[in-house]
Write a structure and sequence with these properties.
Number of strands: 14
Helix content: 25-40%
CATH class of the largest domain: Alpha Beta
Shape: globular
Order of helices and strands: EHEEHEHEEEHEHEHEEHEHEE
CATH architecture of the largest domain: 3-Layer(aba) Sandwich
Mean pLDDT: 87
CATH topology of the largest domain: Rossmann fold
Largest sheet: 7 strands, mixed
């Protein structure tokens, strides 16, 4: 099968490369990497839709300067190029997130193997990085966890490594659910249930900790559910939004009686923690 490689130049690069990556992931693009202020994206000839691609770029017009070039690659060549540019992620000295094709011996306390496919959550993005840091710093042993918008399942996997009693990983994309199941199996996880659906898929359940790494609008829509689903003294971790959106989420959470606990920032992105 033939693949297209797109080299997309974006100025300013941050945070717009991450936003465009999210858009293209919804259009069946299967691999991404960044190099020298350019975003490289791969999509099969079968799945490429020129109109949808043009619309994705047009959605950023007026905010960034953007241009692109593309070339055709045989499937194996695409795999080789993408893998050679897909770097491991290291979080402090505590966690290494690697892909199956990385031949890597590390001295890190924990190592998670993630086959990313088209799913979000490799640790490269600032929001996933912050959520992983938060899990490493939290007391979640014997807790029941909800990972909402689970993507690759990296947060669910890390939660099991850190001693969580039960983890429900939910995503609206079928390929993410399958990817999460495979990654959980590869990491020898036994306490993760991966479920296809939106917020209505987990009604009438309660959790000690909820991780939701999605986007501002969906988080605000989900907040009443999160409040109801949290057990007393439960913790809610929110990320997937810009630092400039933090006040809106704090305000909406306060309306529901959730107490703001702390926040973290990383390169313009934000994570908030609330307590019930």
């Amino acid at each position: 099968m033939t693949y297209y490689q797109f080299k997309i130049n974006i100025q300013p690069f941050t945070p717009w490369s991450e936003i465009l990556t999210a858009y293209l992931g919804e259009l069946h693009f299967e691999g991404f990497y960044e190099k020298s202020e350019a975003l490289y994206a791969f999509v099969s000839e079968v799945h490429f839709n020129e109109v949808e691609f043009s619309n994705a770029l047009a959605s950023l017009k007026g905010k960034v300067e953007i241009d692109y070039s593309f070339s055709e690659l045989p499937h194996q060549n695409w795999n080789s190029i993408w893998e050679s540019n897909f770097e491991p992620v290291f979080i402090n000295k505590d966690l290494a997130i690697v892909a199956p094709f990385h031949q890597l011996e590390t001295s890190y306390k924990r190592t998670i193997v993630i086959e990313p496919k088209m799913s979000f959550g490799t640790g490269h993005h600032q929001t996933t990085y912050m959520m992983c840091e938060a899990i490493l710093e939290s007391e979640i042993e014997e807790k029941k966890i909800l990972d909402m918008g689970s993507g690759t399942g990296v947060l669910a996997i890390l939660a099991e490594i850190e001693g969580a009693r039960e983890i429900l990983a939910v995503d609206i994309e079928p390929w993410s659910v399958e990817n999460c199941k495979k990654n959980a199996l590869d990491n020898k996880c036994e306490k993760i249930t991966s479920l296809l659906g939106d917020i209505d898929a987990v009604v009438n359940q309660t959790f000690d900790v909820i991780f939701a790494n999605i986007n501002k609008n969906i988080l605000i829509r989900h907040l009443p559910f999160y409040e109801r689903a949290l057990n007393p003294d439960g913790l809610l971790y929110l990320s997937g939004f810009f630092d400039s959106d933090a006040d809106d989420l704090k305000r909406e959470s306060a309306k529901l009686g959730l107490s703001f606990s702390r926040q973290n920032k990383r390169e313009g992105w934000c994570m908030l923690v609330f307590k019930k």
